[in-house]
Amino acid sequence: MNPGENSKILLLYTGGTIGMVVDPETTALRAFDFSQIYEHVPELQKLHIDIEYQSFDEPIDSSNMSPSLWVKLGKQIEENYNTFDGFVILHGSDTMAYTASALSFMLKGLSKPVILTGSQLPVGTIRTDGKENLITALEIAAAKRNDQSVVREVAVYFEYNLYRGNRTHKISSENFEAFESPNYPMLAEAGVHIHYNESALWVPQEESELQLETGFDDSIAVLHLFPGWTIEYVEAFLGMKNLKCLILRTYGSGNAPDHPDFLASLKKYRDKGVSILNVSQCIKGSVLQGKYQSSKGLQEIGVLNGADITLEAAVTKCMHLLAQDIDPDSFAQQLQLPIAGEMSIMRH
Fold first, then answer.
1. Torsion of CA 182, 212, 207, 181, to 10 degrees
2. Helix 311-322 to helix 328-335 angle, to the nearest 10 degrees?
């Protein structure tokens, strides 16, 4: 395997903790000038990778990430796709899983690595996890075998582990091990060597060309069930103006109250054309709609099965599919089947 020497990688900085240093005059954190990246991370010079960078004009806290910025990132990758061997995106960790999921749906025919990474501590602090995350993300993005990138999908690298981007979920706000892939194996693990899980890596269609699909329709809502909810609470979500898709966060393996008023309310809006996707509140496991009596009612009124999809992938997939010019039956079918490796096909 070629460790990536002489590969050309585009580093895209959106903002986030990783790009911060301490201002010597004010002692406050500020974004550093990426034209001076080798001063802040001199270890990069030992990689023998040709690194170029682009930055958002105004780096953002990832809490301010939005579909329009997903599109901006997608266009940056599309415009530079034939010039670079891979891409590393520096991103705040809070919404990283949403961005990784969105990019996985946007970048049709992707056959090069798009690796998102960040850090819990700024790269300018002594104990930062940012340097290792950045260096290894670049190594993974540059790695080739038989002149072909080893990783050919959107992925998240954090604290020695590489995950499929649309399978990730942030699990900690303070541990360096901030991410997990609850229902899909790691793509790679970095120790003394980087070990790739070959069976888990995405294999693109042969001779596919990159096609960027930029549409996102935010006419969605997420309804989180809890003991003590009222029908007014449910109706407030379902009665939203222009609502097209509701993500229903249920208990366990897709269970919900079998209260007649609740089911009648859902059915009323289903009959009006609102799609409803059943996604479990559990981090691990899958929706098994119809297994228990408490989910048979949902199945009977046409609620769609989200299987083992993460909330982040469900949100971005719904937005992405709603923006496509497809009929309701195709929308329902594609929502329940993997289109970028984001969910498993459940056979029960």
1. -10
2. 160
| H or E segment to which residue 322 belongs | helix 311-322
10 Å Cβ neighbour count for 85? Answer: 20
Query: Known catalytic residue: 95?
Result: no
Give whole-number Cα distances, 63 to 11, 59, 156, 157, 178, in Å: 21, 12, 18, 19, 16
Helix, coil or strand: residue 248: strand
- How much is the pTM? 0.94
Residues 6+ apart with CB under 8 A from 248: 223, 225, 256, 266, 276, 277, 278, 279, 298, 303
Residue 235 CB neighbour total at 10 angstroms: 14
Q: Which of 14, 17, 95, 117 is catalytic?
A: 17
For the stretch 288-309, pLDDT in tens is 988 888 789 999 999 999 999 9
Neighbour count for residue 31 (Cβ, 10 Å): 18
The DSSP output letter for 204 is: P
